[in-house]
Each structure stands twice: as structure tokens, then as C-alpha cells.
Amino acid sequence: MDKIREKMSALRTEADNAVTRAEAAEAKNKQYEQQLLEKEQTITSLNVQIARLDGELEASESKLQEAKSAQADGEHSKTTNDSLARKIVLLEEELDAAEKNVKETTEKLRQVDVKAEHFERQVQRVEQERDQWETKYEEMVAKFKASQAELDELVKGMEGV
């Protein structure tokens, strides 16, 4: 009986040890389950954060694409603006040259008008002188004819004498 008691005592000790180990294992299991739950919550939180960051990334990429497009449009506009500015400068230079040419041409035309008026006055004066000379010529021709007629009459009158 002592052996049985010893065996029983050993079995109780063994059972107590087994219960202690089982309780320790259950505590570890609870601890692991708690850690697993925390890890799952962390994973869920991280998945939500990843989804949010993916959305932000897509929005940022969209904004980046819009910014690149706006930059390209801006560069195109700048290029167009520069081209138009150069055209304006060239047109202004052409306008200045044309205005200078118009001024020079206007001045030359004015000088030609002045010379034309001067020559017209000279032509009028020369025409008046010509008319006067023609009148004198006609008067002289008439006097010459009258003198010739007188001379002819005088010659006839002398021949008859």
C-alpha cells in the first residue's frame, strides 16, 4: 500500500506537473493568440494604410501627369510667345524701315514738287518770252513787207523816171 500511495503521490505530482505545464501551455497559447490578434490588427491597419497610400499615390501620379502636361503646355506657350516676340521685333524693325522710307520718299516727292513748280514757272516765263518774240517777229515781218513794198514802189517809180 505504501507503494500504491507512493505511486499515487507520484501520479499526483505528475498530474500536478502536467496541470502546471498545461496551464503554462494555455497561458503561452493565450499569449500567442493575443500576439496573433495584435499582428492581424496590425496587418489590417497596414492594409488600410496601404490602400490609402495607393489612393494618394494614384492622385499624386495624376497630379504629376497634369503638372507635366501643364509644363509641356507652358513650354509650348513660352516657345510660341518667344516666337511671337521675335516676330513683333522683326515687324517693328520693318515698320521703322518702312516709316523711314516713307519719310524719305515724302521728302523727295516734296522736293520734286518744288522743282516742278519752279520749272512750270520757268516754262510759263519762257512761253511768255516766246510769245513776245513771235509778236515782235510778226511785227518785224510786217514792217519788212511794208518796207519791201515801199522799196519795190520806189524802184518802179525810179525805173519810170
Notes on the structure:
There is one protein chain. The chain has 161 residues and is mostly helical. The chain contains one helix and no strands. The chain has one helix spanning 2-159. The longest helix is centred in the middle third of the chain and has 158 residues, at 2-159. The protein is rod-shaped and about 230 Å long. The N and C termini lie far apart (228 Å). The model has no long low-confidence stretch (mean pLDDT 92).
From the spread of the alpha carbons, the general shape counts as rod-shaped
Number of helices: 1
Portion in beta strands? under 5%
Helix content: over 70%
Mean pLDDT over all positions: 92
Q: Give the H and E element order.
A: H
| Low-confidence residue ranges | none
Q: Label the structural class.
A: mainly alpha
Radius of gyration using CA atoms only: 67 Å
Per-chain topology:
Blueprint: H1 2-159
Which descriptors apply to this entry?
161 residues; mainly alpha; single chain; 0% strand
Q: Gist?
A:
With 161 residues, the chain is an all-alpha fold.
